[in-house]
Fold:
Amino acid sequence: MNNAIPLSQPDITDAEVRLVVDTLRSGRLALGPRLEEFERLIAEHAGRRHGIGVNSGTSGLHLCLEALGIGPGDEVITPAFSFVASANCILYTGATPVFVDCDPRTLNVSVQAVERKISDRTRAIIGVEVFGNPAGMAELAALAARYELPLIEDCAEALGGRHRDEPAGRFGRLAVFGFYPNKQITTGEGGMIVTDDDRLADLCRSLRNHGRPPESTEAGQGLGSELDHVRLGYNYRMSEINAALGIAQMRRLCELIEARQNVAAAYTRRLMGNIDIILPTVEPETYMSWFVFVVRLSDRFTAENRDYIIDGLRRHDVGSSNYFPPIPLLPFYRKRFGYRPGDFPVAESVSHRTLALPFFTRLTGREVDLVCQTLELMMTRITFART
Structure:
């Protein structure tokens, strides 16, 4: 549907267009200087030694698990409340996802619940910074260290966020950013692994490029090196074109994050007086890098009420969606693992009432007000229907 106010929209300027066109004209479209520069920019921003560009955040999570040797018979702890990629990547390796309920305030995993799920078969923990909120990551990293388990930080939604003065991407042994068009910056499609571990970085570089030696480039490094596949690998490379778009976006990162902060603040001012709307919680030690703006309806509203409101917003040309259904209750996971309603009560309660509002850098104050008016109109119609 072509919404008058879309749910999301990338912020692309002439600077991005010029750099992409320059790259197209360079004749070098894979594994070249643009990728190296983009990897350096992201790694430096996260305070890490290595950046490994890949074609999606999902690919990055998969490679992290492969590099750690995760496979059949292993368990990996992961959030029940997240985008499905944070669980799918575990299945790609043949390992088993072990789901954990979320904290009702931050919506990230409950650290106490994670500890209760650790078993002799646990080989790693995936921690997701849901909606760009890095709250609790320091505690999760400390827990992982205490049990000598690698933490994979899924910061696909959190570029630019900070927790206790540490940037998102700094907490895990490996961390993965994502650059889909609705993210803080976009490469169209793409992701980035960051780490301080030289061995894991080399493994990820090899795995993304069909298992070639990590020092191999598109042109090869000596006779036969281009086709010396030393391990099973994947075609997960990020192109020079995607990297060029990412470079131009990174040069504007502060501007983009500030614009998103302003839109989030406008929503907060406009909705904070509505007792039936629960606004996102930002902890005192957390700097939120806003990926989306997701509100929750109060307990007076059901999942059916929420869906009615989303449909009403869309009928009024306002983009909206539910974020996220609990992964274990998605049809595929229910069929495969037998999960049932009630297994993850916090995630289920939250997901029944979450509602994503239009959110992007160029959203105007007038548009924010129109979105909020339409939202409250739909809520009022439900209230009147009850009386």
